[in-house]
Amino acid sequence: ALSAVYAYYRGGEGMLTPVLRDEPKVPALGEVMVPFHAWFRELAGQLSAGWGGSPRVQKAIRVSVGHALGFDAWRSVIREGLSDEEAVEIFVLMVGCMAGRKLPAQAESE
Fold it and tell me: Is the separation of the CB atoms in 30 and 23 below 8 Å?
């Protein structure tokens, strides 16, 4: 799924950059983008489901998945010279680490 999202971003970067930049300033644009953001929230929920862990770990996974799906996150790693495939690898590893590890405060309390 992440590879498909990044291919979409790569193909639409020229359009998405100004649209997402101007969205907060243009109310009509914000209205048009509601389904776009809703779809990504739903996708993040689906991709972050089923990893297990404590509620705190589940929240960290959800945040990590949401970040990985973000256009700005994709752009930042691409600007550092990564390919889309390398970006997918990094974000999958990030989520996998969250799923397999205890968070610092959680480790102290157990």
Answer: yes
